[in-house]
Request: fold
Amino acid sequence: MLLDHLRSFFTVAKHLGLREASSELHLTQSAVSKRLKSLQDALGAKLYTRNSTGIELTEAGHLALNKIAPILKQVEELEATFRRKIPQEQQPIVFSVAGAFSLGAELLPSMIARYEKSHAGVTVNCHTGSSQQVQQMLREGRTEIGLSTYPPITGDMASEPFRVQTLVFFVNPRHPLASRRHLTLADVLAYPLVTRGMMGGPTWIQDILRQLGEKGFKYKGTSE
Reply:
């Protein structure tokens, strides 16, 4: 259970609607919904129901609201004590981006630096993890945008291609393929191929091997 989840529920309960709450929180309605779901899962109780005009708190929701309100009040007082109050018009806009390990190392830092340079007053928080962890951050509302090396496993997130990833084969200088100027995929797969993958879930390497298998190329996988 995160403080952001409590704050999101409090804001939704105040407006009795996701649209107004998401506007105040500077989040998408989808992100707010995911935070509410995470809070309900953590508490093991249904906190609200939807109706024609917005939402309605359940009995458990009213009980949770009464407990959450003083917590947020104390947090606000604590922040006011240890942080200089910034005028509302000068408060920075902050959003989060998460990327898979390789993307978080080679792509996100330069992109974020360019974005922050051209958007004064905007701060971007960057998180890295496995592709599965990035998708979990999105589901829990801990990040607004995620970059993964493969599409979402489930259908609860929207995705679109960002760029084409270039793959490079390396061989020993004395390897028979080293002197060849042009190679076909069949040439490459005629020799043992070592790839790097991650344990615990699908990877882009596994997806490539699957597609190669569908084209008739045979391979025998081993792991160390």
The CA atoms of residues 15 and 94 lie 22 Å apart. The chain has a mean pLDDT of 81. The beta strands are 48-50, 55-57, 93-100, 122-129, 145-147.
